[in-house]
Amino acid sequence: MADLEAKPPLSPSSTLEKQFEDFRHHLEESESLRERIRAVAREIESVTRLIYSCLLLVHQSRPIPEVLEKVKAQISKLKELFHRLAGILRECPGQYYRYHGDWRSETQTVVSLLGFMHWLETGNLLMHTQVEERLGLKTSEFGLDIEDYLIGICFMSNELPRYVVNQVTAGDYDCPRKVLKFLTDLHAAFRMLNLRNDLLRKKFDGMKYDLRRVEEVYYDVKIRGLTANGDSTRDLGIQGQS
Amino acid sequence: MFYASSAFHKFFLMAPKSQRLNRVAETTLQSAAKRPRTITTTAESSMRDAFAKYADCLNELNDKRERVVKASRDITINSKKVIFQVHRMSKHNKEEVLEKAEKDLAAVTDQYVARLVKELGGTDFWKLRRAYSPGVQEYVEAATLFKFCKTGTLLNLGEINGILLPLSDPSLDPLQINVLDYLLGLADLTGELMRMAIGRISDGELEYAEKICRFVREIHRELTLLAPDMDDSNEMKTKMDTMLQSVVKIENACFSVHVRGSECIPLLGSDVPSYSLLGLSDLE
Predict the structure, then answer these.
(1) How many CB pairs below 8 Å do chains A and B form together?
(2) Which among B29, B55, B222 has the least Cβ separation from residue A129?
(3) Which of A53, B127, B232, B236 could bond to A97 as cystine, CB 3.0-4.6 Å?
(4) C-alpha angle with apex B147: B69 to B130, nearest 5 degrees?
(5) Chain B residues in contact with A125 (beta carbon < 8 A)
C-alpha cells in the first residue's frame, strides 16, 4: 500500500502509453507485411488455377507432352512469385511460421500440381527437395514445410482415380496397373508416418478411397481380359460412368 | 548482412526446427533422387527412404510439441498458484503475502519457464507457439498482477523478457515472449484485478479499488486500439468483451460504495469483509 501511494501517478502511465505506442507500430508493421504476403499468395493461387485448368486436359486424352509443354511457362511464374515471397519474409527473419498460414494452402496446391505433372512425366513421386528445386526455394532461408509437402501429395492422389478412369475409357488398359502400383507404394510410404489428428491425417485417411477406386478399375479391366490387348471400349464406357 | 550472418549462425547451431528438418530431408533426398534416373526399380525404395526421413522429422516435431505442451501446462498451474497467493492479500498482511508471492513467482520462472526455454531450445518459436502460448499468457498474467500489487505499475514486455533472458542458453536464440502473448496475458490480468478490486472494497480499501479501476480502464483503452491488429484477433476479441465487463463491474462497485458508502461506515471497521456494501447482484 505504501508503495502504491508513493509513486507519482503521471510517470507510470506515460511509460505505459509509450509501450502500447510501440506495440501499435509493431502490429501495424506486421499487418502490412501480412497484406503483402497475402497479395503474393493470391497471385500464386491464380497461377495454380491456370495450371490446373491446363492439366485437366489430360482427362480429355490429350498427349501428355503437349499438356506439360503448355504448363511449363507457368512454372517460371510460380518460381518468381515464391522468390518474391521469400524476399518479403527476409525482412522478418525467424518469423516464417508467424505468417505461414497465409501461403500454406496455396503452397499445398502448388505441390499437388507439380507432383501430378512429375508423375505424368516420369511415373515417380516428386520428392520434397525436388519441389524446392523447382520453385527455387532454399531450405536455409525459405523452405518448403514438410507437412505442406505431404498434404500436397495427398491432394495429388485425389486426382489419380479420375485419370485412370478416363485413360481406360480412352483405351489405355495398362494405366490402372501402373497407377495402382504407384498409389500402393505411396500409401505404404505414408503409413510409415506417425500422424497427429490434423489436416494431414485427414487427407491421408482420404487416400485409401483413391486407392480403392483405382483397385476397382484395375479389377474391372483385368477380369474382362483387357489388360493384354484393348478394343472393347464399349464395356469400359459403362465402367467409366459407374 | 545481418540476415546473412544470422542465417549462417542458425545453420550451424541448428536453430529453427523446420529448417533443420528440411535440411535433413534434403541431404538424403538428393542422394536418393539421383538413382531413379538410371534404374527405375529403385523408385519404390527411394520413396521409402524419403518417407522414413519425413517420419523422423514429424516424430521429432511431435515429441517436442508434446514436451512443450507439458511445460506450458506446468507454467499455467503454478502461475495460477501465484495469482491465488496474491489474492490472499488483505489490509494487514500485504507485505508478507507479497513476499511469498514473489518467491513463488521466482520459482515458476526458475523451474517451469526455464524448462520451457530448454525444451524450445532455440527452435522456431512461432512454429510451436500454439503449444506454449497458454502457459506464457498465464505467466504474464501472474507476473503483471504481482508487479501491480507491489508497485502499482504495469510490468512491461521488455522487463519480462529481461527476466527470461538469463534462462536461455547464450548460444541459441533466447526465448522472448512475443507481443501477442503478452497482450493476451494482459487481457486476462484485468479479470484478476476485477476480483481484487471487489475484495479491496469489501475490505474497506476504497482508494486501492479506485486505483485498480483507473489502471484497468487504461489497459482496456490501450488494448481497444491494438486488438483488431493482432494476428488472430478472434481470441483477443472475446477477451476484449470480458475485459469490458470487468471494467464495468469495478466501476459499478466503486459507484455503489461512493453513493452508499456513508451508510456502511460501521462495517469498514470490522475485520470480516462485507460484500453487502456493494449492493450488486451481478458481480459474479
Answers:
(1) 157
(2) B29
(3) B127
(4) 20
(5) 43, 47, 50
Of A138-152, A200-214, A220-234, which gets the smallest average pLDDT? A220-234
Assess whether A28 and A140 both reside in one domain.
yes
CA atoms B162, B85, B264, B279: torsion sign: positive
**Interface predicted TM-score of the whole assembly (ipTM), two decimals:** 0.81
In angstroms, the CA B152 to CA B154 distance is 7
The span from the CA of B126 to the CA of B143, in Å, is: 22
Alpha helices in A141-174 (DSSP H): 146-169
CB distance from B41 to chain A under 8 Å?
no
Q: Which of residues B284 and A77 earns the better pLDDT score?
A: A77
One-letter amino acid identity for B105?
L
- Please tell me if residue A184 touches chain B, with a CB cutoff of 8 Å: no
Average pLDDT over residues B233-257: 91
Q: How confident is the model at residue A233 (pLDDT cuts 50, 70, 90)?
A: very low
* Cβ within 8 Å, pair B18-A145: yes
> Do A140 and A164 fall into the same domain?
no
- Euclidean distance between CA atoms B152 and A5, whole angstroms: 8
Spell out which residues of chain B touch residue A185, defining contact as CB-CB under 8 Å.
43-44, 47
Interface contact B156-A15, CB threshold 8 A: yes
Name the residue facing B226 among A16, A24, A130 (closest C-beta).
Answer: A24
The answer, yes or no, to whether residue B100 has pLDDT greater than 90, is yes
- Nearest CA among A56, A53, A51, A239 for reference residue A159: A56
Q: Which of B151, B139, B68 is nearest to B108 (CA)?
A: B139
Collect all residues of chain B within an 8 Å Cβ-Cβ radius of residue A146. 18, 21-22, 25, 54, 57-58
Q: Which CATH number does the domain B56-278 belong to among 3.10.20.30, 1.20.58.190, 3.90.320.10, 3.30.70.20?
A: 1.20.58.190
Q: Which domain-ending residue is among A144, A176, A203?
A: A144
Largest CA distance in chain B: 96
Residues of the domain holding A217: 160-242
- Give yes or no for A86 touching B (CB within 8 A): no
Instruction: Provide the pLDDT for residue B46.
Output: 85
Q: Is A94 left (phi over 0), alpha (psi -120 to 50) or beta?
A: left
| Tens-digit pLDDT profile for residues A66-78 | 999 989 889 999 9
Q: Do A31 and B229 touch (CB under 8 A)?
A: yes
pLDDT digits (tens, 9 = 90+) for A34-46: 999 999 999 999 9
Domains of chain B by residue range: 56-278
How confident is the prediction for chain A on average, in pLDDT?
A: 87
